[in-house]
Amino acid sequence: MITASEGTATDDALLEIDDLRVHFVTSRGVVQAVDGVSYTVKPGEIVAVVGESGCGKSVTALSVMRLLAKPAGRVVSGRVMFQGRDLLTLSDEEMREIRGRDIAMIFQEPMTSLNPVLTIGLQIMEPLTIHLGMSDAAARARAVELLGLVGITDGERRLDQYPHQFSGGMRQRVMIAIGLACNPKRGGALRRPHQRHVRRAHRRAGHGGRRVRAAAASLHDRPAALRATP
């Protein structure tokens, strides 16, 4: 795995991953999925994490979000410092307050990440009502705006539709909208074909005074990394 920034973090880093090691306990033994990963993300940066499939990119992101499958997956050592706090030492309740509001992840597979029995609108509005305390009307208006940011038109009608009524690419855009919903300080984008949508939404949000402060993009090859970063 190759990262755009490695080594010792600086004091102004928004996110610092230091010597992260993640193991999975299986019936065939212990799998060392992540073995000593370190990188930093500073405010305003887009950091590309590049590596082949299975090298630990997604597991690193899941570790940052504290979403590893338990009990098999476990962080055995390392630190994940976010705004001066080690996310790995926080309680589940403290992490829930941060996840989605201050730090967000755009999941790789929109086909399975969206709930098929809930409308798109409810799924975009949920973090807005939980983390920002918005009313239903305000959250719906923000959801329409978010769909526009990721290039989905006719947002009012689209909010009442279900995931199966969207194409795969549109579902990925919905996942991006959910990730950007609460204006997180750090986001992660995991699907190469849609890096342009992340960057476009990032720029448009900035024009409105709301901007993701940094992002880490997990990619499979260096040309994609060059396209994803400024």
What's the quick description here?
The chain has 230 residues and is of the alpha/beta class.
Note down, in words, how this protein is organized.
This protein has a single domain (2-228), classed as 3-Layer(aba) Sandwich (Rossmann fold). The strands form two sheets. Strands 1-4-9-8-7 form a five-stranded mixed sheet, with helices on both faces. The chain has a four-stranded antiparallel sheet with strand order 3-2-5-6. The model is unreliable at 2-9, 189-193 and 204-211 (pLDDT under 50). α4 packs across α5 and α4 (120-131) packs parallel to α7. The chain is 36% helix and 25% strand. With 230 residues, it is of the alpha/beta class. It is built from nine helices and nine strands. The chain is globular. It has helices at 57-64, 92-98, 110-113, 120-131, 136-149, 155-158, 168-180, 195-207, 222-228; strands at residues 2-3, 15-26, 29-41, 46-50, 73-82, 85-86, 103-106, 186-189, 214-219.
Strand count: 9
Query: Counting H and I runs of at least 4 residues, what is the number of helices?
Result: 9
What is the percentage of strand-forming residues? 25-35%
Between the first and last Cα atoms, what is the distance in angstroms?
Answer: 20 Å
Mean pLDDT: 81
| Tally of distinct domains | 1
Q: So, the CATH homologous superfamily?
A: P-loop containing nucleotide triphosphate hydrolases
Residues in helices, as a percent range: 25-40%
The SS-based structural class is alpha/beta
**Order of strands, widest sheet:** 1-4-9-8-7
Spatial extent as radius of gyration: 17 Å
CATH topology term: Rossmann fold
The biggest beta sheet reads: 5 strands, mixed
